[in-house]
Amino acid sequence: MDIIVSARHMELTDAMKNSVISSLEGLNHASNITKAEVVLDTDHNKFRAEIVVHGSKMNLDAKAEMDDMYDAIDKSVDRLQKQIDKKFGKMLDSQKGEHLGEIEAELAEAELAEAELAED
Asked: What are phi and psi of 34, to 5 degrees?
């Protein structure tokens, strides 16, 4: 994965760059990501991290604004991980040929059956 880290209105330190790289390499399904662009920014005592990833059949972005740069990086990586999990979940479901409504109906039936067994 190619990782491009840049900074606006501030100086990019090695610690910030290493934090971004280690966080992105820890993502699930990272092997499907070919490129990641990260922009770190500061504005009026707030720190912002924006991540855009490109990969096989996906282009995702996540942003976070916090009081601490490292918290902003972690928050944006967490948001990105949620998007990736959702994307791959949908891709897996579509490969099975099941619609989301069918899956939810099966789960509701299973929960109802468990509730009936618990009552008996």
From this structure: -100, -30
What Cα–Cα distance (Å) separates residue 58 from each residue in 2, 41, 88, 92, 98?
15, 25, 10, 14, 21
Residues contacting residue 25 through CB under 8 Å, at least 6 positions apart: 1
pLDDT, tens only, 41-76: 998 889 999 999 998 778 999 999 999 999 999 999
For domain 2-119, give the fold. Answer: Double Stranded RNA Binding Domain (3.30.160)
With contact defined as beta carbons under 8 Å apart, do 86 and 61 qualify? Answer: no
Longest dimension (CA), the chain: 65
Instruction: Name the residue ranges covered by the structural domains of the chain.
Output: 2-119
The reported pTM is: 0.72
